[in-house]
Specification:
The structure is a single chain. The protein is an alpha+beta fold. It is 12% helix and 27% strand. The protein has one domain. Bound molecules: zinc ion (ZN). The site of zinc ion has 4 residues, from α1.
Length: 56
């Protein structure tokens, strides 16, 4: 069974190994703002994630 946290998509985006449409929009100490990784019917959906892995 696949595990969404292993490998961790959020960490891959933070490292730059995975690029979402639009890429990383902003970085602030401890946080990264990026477009949602999976296809979405809502345009402009962004995700604020921590730079450090947080177990899901
Ligand atoms: Zn992670």
């Amino acid at each position: 069974m696949s595990n969404i946290n292993d490998p961790c998509l959020g960490c891959a985006i933070v490292r730059g190994d995975t690029r979402t449409t639009g890429g990383v929009l902003a970085r602030a100490p401890g946080f990264v703002l990026h477009a949602v990784a999976s296809p979405s019917p809502v345009s402009g959906w962004v995700v604020l994630t921590s730079e450090q892995h947080v177990r899901g």
